[in-house]
Each structure stands twice: as C-alpha cells, then as structure tokens.
Design goal:
By secondary structure, the chain is of the alpha+beta class. It has ten helices and twelve strands. The chain starts with a helix and ends in a 12-residue tail after the last strand.
Length: 402
C-alpha cells in the first residue's frame, strides 16, 4: 500500500476499531464481462449524479452560512447566550433566523453527498457495499495492484483496459504506474488528483491531532513527522501561514513528503481558505496552487465544491469544553522533540480500545507539540510530533497576496 493511503488507513483503524467488528480480508474477485458492463453503467450514473448535485449543495451551504451568521449576530448582541438559552434561545432563533439549528440542512447535505453512490449501485444492480468494493478494487488495479482478481479476471480486465481507464477519468497510458508514482497515473485527471488530496487533508485534519491547534501569525511555519506503529511509514508535513489577503481570507502552504523504502514523493499545495460564517474553526477552501509529482512548474488546481469545507479542529467540529479539558488533563510534563524541549500540558481522552493523548504548549507555534493514539496495550499506534518551526514563510508557488 502506498504511503499516504496507509497512514490514512492506520488512523481510520485506530479511531474506529472499537466500533468495527473483526472481519476477513476482501476476497479475490472473479470478474466477468457482464459484471464489468454493469459496473460501467454504475460508474456513468455516479458521474452524472455527482455533476447534477452541485446546485443543491451550493443552496444548502448558503442556508447554513446564513443561519450561522444570523446566530452569531444574535449572540454578539446578547439576544441569546449567557442566561438566554435552552427553549427560549431556540424560539428566538426560529423566529429570527428561520430555524432553531442547522442540523437538518447538514444532514440533508450529507444525504445528497451519498446520493451518487446509491444511484450508481442501483443502476448497476449492486448492493452499495458491493459496488464500493468493486470500484475500489478496480481503481487499485489501474494503479498496478492485481492482487484482488483471479487470473482469468486479469485477462478480461486487460481486454477492457481502455474503457476501464476512461471510466475513472485517466489516460490508458498511465495504467499500472501506481498511486504513489511520479508518472501520470495518479495525476492524470482532477478526479484522481483530488482523491489523493482528500486523503492528504484527512490525514492532516481528521486524525484529531489538530484539535487544540492555536492561531499562527503570518509567516509562521511548523514541520511535523507522523509515524505508524511499526515505524515503516513516515510522513513529513509542513504547514505555513504565508499571508492574509485584505478580504479576510488566509493563504496556507501544506507540503508533504512521503517516504516508503527507497521511494519519496513531495506534494506542495498553497491554498486560500475563507472562514465559514459563525464558525471560526471551519474553513472554506476556495483556491489552490500545487506542485505535484511529475510537474516541473507549479499549476493552478481545480477546487471542486464537494471538497470545499474543512474543519481545522478535526472531525468533532468544535473544541472540548474547558471543564472537559480540565478533567482530561494528566499533568504538566517535559517533552523533547527534534524541535526542542517543551513544558507541555498532557491531555488524555479515552476511546474504546485505547486513548488519544496531546501535549500542549502555548509557547510553541500552533500551541501543541505532540499527538499519539495508543492502543489498549498502551503501545503507540500513530504519533505526530513537531520537528521544526520558524518564521518568514512566503509563497513558493508564485501566489500573489493582496
């Protein structure tokens, strides 16, 4: 498995293991021509449905943003919050903002985002899990992994290789080059590029590591190393606040270096985020430049609407309450990383089958220096720690900030 996907998988297993029963590995698939034809119909349906939902998503995003702004205005004015809470606050919100909360819109948005896959499964006569599994295994095949298919299946897939590549939006000449390769397979289309960037952002922001991250000043940067349990996979990432435009957005650089054996890939992205009204932790990604494996020069990248919203505090969407943090504080400890020695507050939260531990130091850029997911045996499954920090960060990809 390639470095990024493996790191994302380790995080997923560590965070969801208590909720996921043990199960066998995916069985080898016996592909027939009929099965492939059904898959092609399903994949076409998924593409069509995905392109048609952008207006609905935009409408719901507008409603959510409008509600959040209205709520923030009421809180700022003292109309709700403080002593005015509970039922009274909900009534005021409904009368003034049109709803007591935005949960229904958010659920509706999530349901729409799931719609294309459900429509695809129906069109191809698959169960949803069956379609997802087949699609993922076929994508692995296009990236050079033949392990999911029988020998007769591989012969059929080879005969349909051009059609299969087209279904995934990639050039047939790039088939087999591999996800982590410097060749054209991974970066041959926006779909493939964003699938990879999506995993990169998930590893950066959905692990829980950035839950307590504080503000950076323009020009400040940090460099981190993430290591899996066995130490075989290491990921170096850099986050730099490279500038603040006059309209209130923020330009950030996220540079990632993946090492696996003798292989190394560097991905450098510079992205413009704008805050979601009423939620300072959630950012709307609106523009991106990147220098990807195989590029000799930086390029402007498409920013799809479905990948536009990122919560910088992690999957919970909000930071814990003060009381919750106080209760989870183990103590204050001396922590040494390659970036220096820090006097850090140790915060530990439980999860089924293990814990998540943070070491927080307000004097460090970003306010934290180490994060570890421990198994129930107290052995680290995943660790991310600060290895360097500094100031003076500027755009490396030709971004002009006004």
């Amino acid at each position: 498995m390639r470095p990024l996907s493996r790191l994302a998988l380790v995080l997923g297993l560590a965070l969801t293991a208590p909720l996921t029963p043990a199960h066998a590995q995916n069985k080898v698939i016996d592909v027939t021509v009929d099965l492939l034809e059904r898959f092609f119909r399903a994949k076409d349906k998924e593409k069509t449905e995905s392109s048609s939902m952008s207006t609905q998503i935009s409408d719901l995003d507008a409603k959510i943003a409008k509600f959040q702004k209205c709520k923030a205005d009421l809180e700022a004015a003292g109309t709700i919050g403080g002593r005015v809470g509970g039922l009274a606050a909900r009534l005021i919100l409904r009368r003034t903002c049109g709803a007591s909360d935005d949960e229904d819109w958010r659920k509706q948005r999530a349901g729409i985002m799931n719609g294309p896959e459900n429509a695809a499964a129906t069109a191809g006569g698959f169960q949803l899990a069956e379609y997802r599994n087949l699609r993922d295994r076929l994508q692995d095949y296009l990236n050079g992994d033949n392990s999911s298919f029988t020998k007769p299946s591989l012969d059929i897939l080879k005969s349909k290789q051009a059609q299969l590549a087209a279904a995934f939006g990639m050039s047939a000449t790039g088939v087999g080059a591999g996800v982590g390769a410097r060749g054209p397979a991974m970066w041959a289309s926006p779909d493939f590029t964003w699938a990879y960037i999506h995993m990169l952002f998930a590893a950066q922001f959905l692990s829980g590591a950035t839950m307590f991250e504080g503000d950076y000043k323009p020009g400040e940067w940090t460099r981190w190393q993430a290591v899996t349990e066995d130490g075989e996979e290491k990921q170096i990432s850099e986050r730099a606040f490279i500038g603040k435009p006059s309209d209130g957005g923020e330009w950030w650089r996220i540079k990632t270096i993946y090492n696996s054996g003798d292989s190394q890939d560097t991905i450098s992205l510079e992205a413009l985020f704008k805050p979601e009204p009423g939620n300072e932790l959630s950012q709307q990604l609106v523009r991106m430049r990147g220098k990807l494996p195989g590029n000799s020069e930086p390029q402007e990248l498409i920013v799809p609407e479905q990948y536009g919203m990122w919560n910088m505090a992690g999957s919970l969407g909000r930071r814990p309450t003060k009381e919750s943090i106080d209760g989870a504080t183990v103590g204050t400890e001396s922590v040494t990383t390659p970036a220096g020695t820090f006097r850090a507050r140790h915060v530990r939260y439980g999860m089924g089958g293990g814990t998540m531990d943070w070491w927080l130091d307000d004097s460090a850029v970003g306010g934290w220096v180490k994060f570890t997911i421990f198994g129930d045996d107290r052995k680290p499954k995943y660790t991310q720690e600060l290895i360097a920090k500094g100031t003076g960060a500027r755009s490396e990809l030709g971004v002009t900030i006004k």
